Amino acid sequence: MPSLTTARLFKGLLRKEIEGPHSTIPEDEFFDAVETGLDKIEEDRQLRVRLKYQSQQSQISNVSSLHSPSAETEDEIPQLAEDFGTGAQAKSHKLWPEIDRICTEQLTQARQGVGEDGNGWQLFADEGEMKMYRREEEVDGMVIDPLKSCHVVKGVTAREMCHYFFDPAYRNDWETTLEDVQIVDNVAPDTLVFLQTYKRIWPASQRDALFWSHMRRITDNLDAGANDVWIVCNHSNQNEEYPPANQGKCVRIYLTVILVCQTYLPPGKDSKTATRDDLTCKITYCSTVNPGGWAPATVLRAIYKKEYPKFLKRFTGYVVDQCKAKPIMY
């Protein structure tokens, strides 16, 4: 016998109810529908991960006698130019003034505490080393609550964390709602413009996002004890040369995101002597997302409260798993 939630979803499909300010879907049914869709996506992701792991283990066992371990690990070290993370190759692009300005602004805000000046940050998730805060903000009735997360992860460096966040080759492994990623402008090795399309989760409309992404090494004002600092900053862009918003089936998302990562080593250790057991990565993740379109504010906040902690744990866990058998990348 179908569950009440399933029956509600089927009833909604028959009525062709969709997202919109005049939608007749009750908020509890809207939330149930989106939650069911996200849970199904997560189940599919876990299945893909298990199948991929089994395939990798099979390949390793089949070729272990043909390749030496040292050759394998050397191939896994990304070979990047020495000026990667400096923006040197992106400075001639017309987007650079905006990229440099937004990165500087976002880094300054990320470094600020959550209890300063009564700025309205509310703790909504507290799980061990991970703490998440939000401020309630709306624009034209749409929830755009800024988010700030602080986390500490062992066994990886700041650069490794940012590498897996920035490089599109890995994005489908950890960003569960992603349907397609296109690079619409290859500005430089450390600066790309993406058009991302997300899976539709009924009754919400399908979304896409057009944004530049820049990965940078920070060399000034490091926190005491930090070995190095890397960031990835993403920001929506409306350049006329890129695909326009809201021209097809997708509603455009507008976002500003920064991931700030710091590597810490124990006393007496440096980048040459440290092992993975010595590494600590301090993470600050800040985002402001306008989802576009329309959805009930209570539903969006309930979804964010559930999904954001899952996202950060999934992503950081993925990076730790990817790096544990590889040479350390600083």
TrEMBL record:
GO terms for cellular component: cytoplasm. CDD domains: START_STARD11-like (cd08872). Its main location: cytoplasm. One of its GO terms (biological process) is ER to Golgi ceramide transport. It comes from the Eukaryota. It is found in: Cytoplasm. Pfam families: START (PF01852). Keywords: Coiled coil, Cytoplasm, Lipid transport, Transport. One of its GO terms (molecular function) is lipid binding. Residues 117-315 form the START domain. Gene3D superfamilies: 3.30.530.20. PANTHER family: CERAMIDE TRANSFER PROTEIN, PHOSPHATIDYLCHOLINE TRANSFER PROTEIN. This is START domain-containing protein. It comes from Anopheles quadriannulatus (Mosquito).
